[in-house]
Each structure stands twice: as structure tokens, then as C-alpha cells.
Amino acid sequence: MPTQWLLTGGAVLGSLALLACGSDPTTSTSKTCGASGAAANITATSSLSFAPAAATINAGQSVCWQNGSQFAHTVTSDEVGAFNNGLAIGDTFIHTFANKGTFTYHCSIHAVMTGTITVQ
Ligand SMILES: [Cu+2]
Question: Measured in angstroms, how far is the CA atom of residue 111 from the centroid of ligand 1?
Fold first, then answer.
């Protein structure tokens, strides 16, 4: 039934649009960090590091992580529950830091991968 197909297709497209935009203002995914407007861009690398490992931003600004490697990674706050996001190959993750402080994080898959965000 053609009408049924159109409705189903519209629902699928709507779902994809929601996924692309993200509904949480503090966390979202996009294709590239360059267009994200984040104050700092960090790449998860194939040599199992976050590059740069340390970044400094101002309170209220965002950091964008991108998986530029051939492995899956995570961006996981050392403070339990602050942020934890899987990064498939090519994925990006954006987090906004509202408060000043020093925030350390790691990759839950590769223990050697650690980083620090200083919010001033
Ligand atoms: Cu990793």
C-alpha cells in the first residue's frame, strides 16, 4: 500500500534527523569537529592517545573529540557519571563544560589513553 510506505519512510527519516541533531544540549554527535564550534578539538589516534592530551577552555565552552583512528574508543570522565561516550571510527562527541575546574578522562577500552581538560 503506497500510503503506508510513505508514512513509514517519513518516520524513518524523522528518526535519523533526531539522531543527527541530538536532543541533549550538553552532548551531541556530528560528523566533524571542525564545524562544531567547539573551543578545543581532540583526536583519538591509532597510536592510542588523545591528541592533544591536555586542552584549556573557558567555562561554558565545548570540547569536541573525534575518532580519527582505526579503533573504537570512548571518552569517559574519571568522575563517574560526568560524561561517557563511545566513539566508533569517525565519530565525534561534544561536551560542554559549564563549570571551572580540572577534568580528567580516559578511554575505557585502552587504559593508556588519558586526557585533561582545564576549564578556566
Ligand atoms: Cu581507546
Answer: 7
